[in-house]
Amino acid sequence: MSWLFATRTFLGLKAQEGELAYDLGFMLTTVSSGGVSGFLIGYAIKKGIKIILGIAGLFLGALAYLNYKGLVTVDWEMIASVSNKAISEFSLGTANYASSVMDSQVVPTMMNFGVPLTGSFAAGFILGCLKG
Asked: 88-127: per-residue pLDDT in tens?
């Protein structure tokens, strides 16, 4: 007798004719794997962003120092406009992609598998970002 069968029998989750049976083992696996992977990804992303921002800060500091010494000439207005344009294109592109992915075939799958996975992933991701 497997653990999953024993758990389902104990909880009375046997499927009757025409009823929806909940697979507790599948649900627990989905929630735990989503939470753990969300935590790890959130932690890694926060560490990666810290490293990238540190390198960018050092680079801009070096440019400001070289500009102050007169060794290079930096067009700060051009840097600001290019960075604002990149940020707006990135945010607009991600919003358009998210709305084009959802269609009628995705909704049933999301209700059975994606909601527990996404919810636990989001909670783990937030915890990973807080601890990172």
From this structure: 887 776 555 555 555 555 565 566 666 777 888 888 999 9
- 3-state DSSP call for residue 106? helix
How many other C-beta atoms lie within 10 A of the C-beta of residue 46?
16
CB 37 within 8 A of CB 125: no
Provide the CB-side half-sphere exposure for 51 (13 A, CA): 7
Distances (CA, A) of 96 to 56, 85, 122: 28, 17, 21
Query: pLDDT, tens digit, for every residue of 16-62?
Result: 544 455 567 777 777 788 889 999 999 999 999 999 999 999 999 99
How far apart (Å, rounded) are the C-alpha atoms in residues 73 and 62? 12
For 73, which DSSP code?
-
pTM for the full predicted model: 0.58
Question: Domain coordinates of the chain in residue numbers?
Answer: 42-102+115-132
